[in-house]
Amino acid sequence: MLPEEVLRNAQAALWDLDGSGVGILEHSHRSKEFLRVLERTERLVREVGGIDDSYAVLFVTAGATHHFAMVPGSFLGAGDTADYCHTGVWSAKAIEEAKRCGAVHVACTGDPAFTATPSTFQWSAAPRYVHYTSNETIYGTEWQTPPPAPAPLVCDASSDIFSRPLVLANHALIYAGAQKNLGPSGISLVIAKRDFIERGRADLPPLAQYRTYAKEQSMHNTPNTFGVYIIGEVCAWILAQGGLPAMGERNARKAKLLYDFLDSSKVWRGHAEPASRSLMNVTFRGTKELEEALLARAEQRGLANLRGHRSVGGLRASIYNAFPEDGVHRLVQLLDDVERGRP
Ligand SMILES: Cc1ncc(COP(=O)(O)O)c(C=O)c1O
After folding, report:
1. Which of 156, 160, 237, 254 is catalytic?
2. In this prediction, what percent of the chain has a pLDDT beyond 90?
3. What is the mean pLDDT of residues 112-120?
4. Residue 291: what are its φ and ψ, rounded to 5°?
5. pTM higher than 0.90, yes or no?
6. Which region, left, alpha or beta, applies to residue 85 given φ > 0 means left and ψ of -120 to 50 means alpha?
7. Strand 171-177 vs strand 315-318: parallel, antiparallel, or unpaired?
């Protein structure tokens, strides 16, 4: 979900951006109106995340999957090893891509059902970077604190970016597909240390180097102008809610409602271990019959997309930033009704 205010502002901007008489989809990316949007979005991203100028803020016209290859392509040179934390479906994909580029060492992994983030680590001798997925969207686990890595961290934060205060310490690069907490699909936000970017390979095509985006303010070619606009609106909305501390509190409250209910239920059970529970994706199961009964009734109560990812089954409530607290109350009520056989 995107916040209603954002969608209503976007609706107006489709017709007329900032009183220019021309819509956001129609402005040239070189127009002064769009340059203002780009400058505003970067400023707001920095304000929300508390990001200083030692980090570049980049808008890349691609999803997070693109960075699975772009990161090792840029930073994993001959003779280097990168360490990866393996916590589920998304880290598996990142590892697969990195292996095409160089030596990959899996430094830690969860249990086979990925119910928890790892707590023991075996780092390689001198990793170039350590990659982790801050929130495993499909299994519903989330690192409560970043892994204690001996090298700069690279984080896939696609499904929990800006859901709580951003931890930048020890991070060289954070990337996030926009479509969960930031805006539309087809654009990703990258927050990267400028000196780390400079250490990347310089002999790749321009759009395969983070350096190009940093040097040309994400304008080497036509950017996803609408995506940049929406990310700015979402950041303005986050600030109006009280910024990331307030988002974090609200998300913790929302998730607790659901986990407390699951813990007290006799038929529904959560997938993730309590210490690794995601605030964004609450994964759980009942019997097959109860799951189908829930899915059959959910849409009537305005609750959509509760089926678990096709690769793991079960149920999943994605309660990203814009999902309202009232929606969680309604879901708990529905779960209780199904459990007790109430209409
Ligand atoms: C954690 C994580 N990483 C990567 C991706 C892939 O994103 P995209 O489809 O934008 O490439 C997703 C998508 O859901 C995700 O949740």
Report:
1. 156
2. 98
3. 96
4. -60, -45
5. yes
6. beta
7. unpaired
Query: Could you report the per-residue pLDDT of 297-312, keeping only the tens digit for each?
Result: 999 999 999 999 987 8
How far is CA 231 from each of CA 137, 187, 209, 234, rounded to the nearest angstrom? Answer: 20, 9, 22, 5
What residues contact residue 302 under an 8 Å CB cut-off, 6+ apart?
A: 327, 330
Q: Which two tokens stand for residue 266?
A: 């006799």
93 is catalytic: no
Per-residue model confidence (pLDDT) at position 206: 98
Cα distances (angstroms) measured from residue 41 to each of 38, 54, 239: 5, 18, 12
In the residue annotation, 180 being an active-site residue is answered as yes
Q: By the 8 A CB rule, do 305 and 232 touch? A: no
Q: How far is the CA of 65 from the centre of ligand 1 (A)?
A: 6
3-state secondary structure of 169: coil
Predicted confidence (pLDDT) at residue 185 exceeds the cutoff of 90: yes
Q: Which atom of ligand 1 is nearest to the CA of 188?
A: 10
Q: Which CATH class is domain 4-240?
A: alpha beta
Count CB atoms within 10 A of the CB of residue 146.
Answer: 17
Residue-wise DSSP of 198-261? HTS-SSS-GGG-HHHHHHTTT-SS---HHHHHHHHHHHHHHHHTTHHHHHHHHHHHHHHHHHHH
Q: Where are the domains of the chain?
A: 4-240, 243-340
Catalytic residue among 90, 143, 237, 268: 90
Q: Does domain 243-340 have CATH number 3.90.1150.10?
A: yes
Closest C-alpha residue for ligand 1 atom 1: 158
- What is the rounded average pLDDT of the residues 149-176? 98
- Let me know: does 179 contact 310? Beta carbons within 8 Å: no
Does residue 90 carry a catalytic annotation?
yes
Output b/e per residue, 167-188; b: 16+ Cβ within 10 A.
Answer: bbeebbbbbbbbbbbbbbeebb
